Amino acid sequence: MLKEGAMKAVEASVNNSVVDPLKWHRRLPKLNWRGGFAVGAFLIAWHFLVLLKAPGFKEISSPVEVLQTFINQYLGNPNYWNSWVASFKRVIYGFVLAQVLGIPLGLLLGTRDTFHKLVYPVIEILRPIPPLAWVPISILFWPTTELSIIFITFIGAFFIIVINVHDAVRNIKKEHYWLALSLGASSGQVFRRIMVPSVIPSIAVGMTLGIAVTWNVVIAAEMIASDSGLGRLTWEGYVSHTVPVVIIGMISIGLAGYLSTIVVDYAEKKMMPWRTTR
Amino acid sequence: MTAKLHVLSSETNGESQAAMAPRPKEGHLSIENVSKTYDPEGARVVALHNCSVEIAPGDFLAIVGPSGCGKSTLMNIIAGFDNVTEGRVLLDGQLLATPTSPPKPGSDRVVVFQNGALFPWKTVLENVMYGPLVQHKMTRAEAEERAMDLLAKCGGLDKVAASYPPQLSSGMQRRVEIVRALINEPKILLLDEPFRAMDTVSKTTMHQHLLQMYRTCRKTIVFITHDLEEAIYLADKVIVMTSRPGTIKSTIIVNLPRPRTPEMMLSTDYLALKAQAIASVHEEAKKAFERGEREHA
Amino acid sequence: MEASWWKNRKFWLMWAGYTGAVVLWYASVKWLPIESFNRLPDPWTVVWEWFNPNPAFGISIFTPNYYVHILYSVYRATSAFALAVLLGVPLGILMGWNRTFNAYASALVGFLRPVPPLAWVPLAILIFPGIEIAVIFVTFLVAFFATVMNTYVGVKSIDPDYFRAAASLGSKPRDVLRHVIIPGALPNIFTGLQIAMGAAWFSLAAGEMIAAQYGLGFLIFEAYNLIQFPTIVIGMATLGIAGFISSAGIRVMGNRLMRWREQSFGLKG
Predict the structure, then answer these.
(1) Cβ contacts (< 8 Å) between A16 and chain B: which residues?
(2) Among B40, B43, B243, whose Cβ lies nearest the Cβ of A3?
(3) Which one of A1, A2, A8, A10 would you mutate to disrupt binding with B, by most B Cβ within 10 Å of its Cβ?
(4) What is the mean pLDDT of residues C5-20?
(5) CATH of domain A73-271
(6) Which residue of B has its CA nearest to A7?
(7) How many structural domains does chain C have?
(8) pLDDT per residue over C85-100, tens digit each?
(9) Chains A–B, number of C-beta pairs less than 8 Å apart
(10) Residue C212 CB: number of other CB atoms within 10 A?
(11) Residue range C11-33: average pLDDT?
(12) Is C49 domain-assigned?
């Protein structure tokens, strides 16, 4: 035990994988010149494939063209930024709603045996239905398109979080309960001190997966059924055959998804101060 | 306590009281002035400082020291998983490690790992046959015959040949791992705290198994442990290491006769050796402990 | 055990749950005075339509058209999935095995992955000749990323001692690949394949809705446009069943291939 910690640190840093949580700047990856090279090569290849009119690239525009269109027509265009807002709104509503309803349901399913046996099989049946298959029913049901898109987004993240929380509760070690009970903990304390911390990592996983699915769903739903948002922007680009817009849409969506991932990651770190490395 | 030990010994020793196998011709290991420095991200750590050890062919060497004293580093260097910063390591006069050569593991120095590294996706038999097969030293039939033979010799392990390792007890797993090493006829067998996670009784049994294997197929053995009693009981020579930088503090020659039996642990010779070793380790452990306390404060 | 299934509490509760859900559905559609619910098809109509030799809206288990849609979807999902596995597993293994390669590849993957696969639909239609390939491509894309990432994580999570042991026993790189990397990463690969299969159905349904002429996704959306509401639910249910069967198939195959795991830890399929 003596210097296990220190030695482990040495061994691990030899394997180049441990990061000191206190020195956050070390967490920044070293400049990966190979990665930069790969991405650069990708862009250049794209550019020249378009210039040479390679098969499949005849109708695509080059990165330079895309950038020009973006700067000239979109950067200062309020409609473009409204698309961002519209999509983000839907993602946030759907995602937050899924967490707010999904986490308690997962906890209930994990702790109440009768409830579990009654409800879980139904969830198992509904879960494999792809979220977007709900689109028509959702449009039918909800009075506005906005609500139906939020509903579909919600479906996308909901089952993921329910299953993750449920599995986590069921996997809590019996010893932890026993320990708490033998120390005279009340059921409220068991819930707060044992259940919640054990479930948080799974909530985090569910959130990471959920946010990605949410963006996916929003984009598709917007393409199918909406008149605003980044998905719509992309689709309109396609319909009006302005390829740079399609690509601007894709990149914006990628960026938006990436930004949300960063926010979710940050929230997870706040939720789990005891986890130093990931 | 004596009675219990006695029962154990007669049980495990009963089957073979064969004489010690003759000293092998190969397996002369010399570690000359080896130092090892890790320098990741600018934090320089000296893991080993100027260590020299000489092991004659067929000798049983134990390396003892507190956690983090560099004994695992030393073993990684011998095994060829890591290179040296200074000095050199020779096996039978051939260079194994120099500061300029890349690390090169080989089947002439097989390792038995602390936490066990039997492939869980292969059966016991497949695990044992693995070495000879990938080196194309034997045909499948030969390897199987040899493997079953060795497994049978090592306390009836042939009965579990078709099992997967996680189904076995940790003692059995460790013995299978030793067999997996022995089938390659290595010049040196490297054992990295193999009995660390075992209870006292299984450990005692494992000691007898190991000693019997050593008696019948004698090899140079490098045995790493933090348990002094174990080291003195098993080895011909015990090296006590100090931590940070890892250096060799003292060398204890164990002249207890072989075959060793658990009763020897009560003999005056053994106790004297133990007292001598404890004295040299104690101050080290204390120093390391205090340093550890300070670092964690 | 088998003889006493009727004494099993779990069994009864499960069916109580199913029945409750169906009754709830029926009640809310038929009796609730809320218009939103009244617009939906009730379970009885759906089942009646689904198992009717003369369906009102042309799709039931007795009509060949139903199976044409299923076959189209299954064909697209399978070919996209197969392609994803064929390319994704080797790529993931290579990324886990070789640091230099990983530096190149992971940057590209990280660059392309944030774009949700469905955002590729318009571009895919432009790049590929024909909508068929575009839909398969989009389906492939999701499955591919899931496979690559999980395979990579699988290789990375192998205990380094196994690599050392293999080296110590005289393995060549080829042996390490065959005897350590592949079996060691297999559990994660199969997790990845299950995720990939789910993701493939997910984006296939969307792709078909947006751009295809046949398939279950198309069926659902077409039924919506033609106000054939029970058919929507038939399509959804069929998609669910197809997704469920395919991931169960992968699980069974995984357990076959990893018998060592099942035996050692008592995992049951």
Answers:
(1) 40
(2) B243
(3) A2
(4) 80
(5) 1.10.3720.10
(6) B68
(7) 2
(8) 999 999 999 998 888 8
(9) 40
(10) 23
(11) 84
(12) no
